């Protein structure tokens, strides 16, 4: 076979699944950021698939999430909540592809503004991608997809909630409608309260605007409804928009399709 043709064939094969794996010739470093109530645990399928394909993957628990022992009612700010991600970015020697799910988009925006030189691409997976800085977290969840699905948590006699938690009897309907039952059982055993705080992040074209942003729409989402996603895309256009026929949690319901999209963006 001609050497040139052989090279084309090899490059072609490297882009397609081999024995259930997605193989990519170039290796990337992904950092996966969870959304409200979740933790690093929710990415187990995606992290495994990317690692099996030879990529470096880091997941983390934001403050009060996952294995963090911090009480969600005491977090108070996006800076404190996002500190584990900033610490991770400060420690890496390369640039990363940053992926944020749901409310993890707030942390993505904060990181893009604070450390743009460490981020090669930012992927908002059905994530909050605001065009202004005047939004509070409790207002984010006051939308058609979530009424009745949250328990508000107050502290120190305050009349303003400082945290919230998904009601477990509503979690499958709102978060995991198309997800496998074993993942729903796992998630319901691990979901935790999450902090509510002023999520205003001052972002600039020089920092936040310097990093290519991508948005992945989840078409059967019952938490961040499709119309809300399209509104955020319209108000703050990313470089590219892709879609998944998934519920709000594609890391459970459509993991292979999500991995393929992430590699196509990489």
Write the layout of secondary structure elements.
Layout: H1 3-14, E1 17-18, E2 21-22, E3 29-33, H2 44-52, E4 56-59, H3 78-81, H4 83-91, E5 96-101, H5 104-114, E6 119-125, H6 137-140, E7 150-153, E8 163-166, H7 168-175, H8 181-190, E9 194-195, E10 213-218, H9 226-235, E11 240-244, H10 250-253, H11 255-265
Parallel strand pairs: 3-4, 3-5, 5-6, 6-10, 10-11
Antiparallel strand pairs: 1-2, 7-8, 8-9
Largest sheet, in brief, is: 6 strands, parallel
Percentage of residues assigned to helices: 25-40%
* SSE arrangement, N to C: HEEEHEHHEHEHEEHHEEHEHH
Count of alpha/pi helices: 11
Beta-strand content bin: 15-25%
Approximate shape = globular
The count of DSSP E runs of length 2 or more, i.e. the number of strands, is 11
Strand order in space, largest sheet: 4-3-5-6-10-11
Low-confidence segments, given as residue ranges, are: 1-20
Overall mean pLDDT: 87
Nearest-angstrom radius of gyration? 19 Å
Distance linking N and C termini: 31 Å
Which structural class best describes the helix and strand composition?
Answer: alpha/beta
What does the model show?
The protein has helices at residues 3-14, 44-52, 78-81, 83-91, 104-114, 137-140, 168-175, 181-190, 226-235, 250-253, 255-265; strands spanning 17-18, 21-22, 29-33, 56-59, 96-101, 119-125, 150-153, 163-166, 194-195, 213-218, 240-244. The chain is α/β, with parallel strands linked by helices and 266 residues long. The strands form 3 sheets. Strands 4-3-5-6-10-11 form a 6-stranded parallel β-sheet, with helices on both faces. The chain has a 3-stranded antiparallel β-sheet with strand order 7-8-9. Strands 1-2 form a two-stranded antiparallel sheet. It starts with a helix and ends with a helix.
């Amino acid at each position: 076979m001609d050497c040139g043709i052989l090279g084309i064939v090899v490059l072609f094969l490297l882009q397609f699944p081999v024995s259930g794996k997605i193989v990519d010739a170039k290796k990337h470093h992904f950092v996966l950021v969870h959304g409200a109530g979740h933790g690093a645990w929710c990415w187990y399928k995606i992290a495994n698939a990317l690692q099996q394909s030879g990529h470096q993957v880091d997941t983390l628990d934001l403050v009060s999430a996952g294995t963090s022992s911090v009480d969600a009612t005491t977090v108070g700010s996006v800076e404190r909540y996002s500190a584990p991600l900033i610490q991770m970015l400060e420690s890496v020697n390369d640039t990363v592809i940053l992926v944020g799910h749901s409310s993890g988009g707030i942390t993505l925006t904060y990181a893009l503004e604070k450390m743009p030189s460490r981020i090669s691409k930012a992927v908002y997976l059905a994530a909050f991608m605001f065009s202004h800085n005047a939004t509070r977290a409790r207002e984010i969840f006051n939308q058609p997809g979530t009424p009745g699905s949250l328990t508000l948590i107050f502290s120190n006699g305050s009349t303003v909630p400082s945290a919230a938690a998904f009601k477990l009897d509503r979690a499958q309907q709102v978060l995991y409608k198309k997800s496998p039952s074993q993942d729903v059982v796992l998630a319901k055993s691990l979901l935790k309260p999450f902090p509510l705080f002023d999520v205003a992040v001052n972002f600039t074209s020089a920092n936040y605007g310097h990093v290519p942003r991508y948005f992945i729409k989840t078409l059967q989402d019952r938490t961040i409804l499709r119309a809300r996603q399209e509104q955020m895309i319209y108000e703050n256009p990313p470089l590219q928009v892709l879609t998944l026929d998934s519920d709000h949690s594609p890391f459970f319901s459509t993991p292979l399709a999500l991995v393929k999209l992430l590699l196509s963006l990489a």
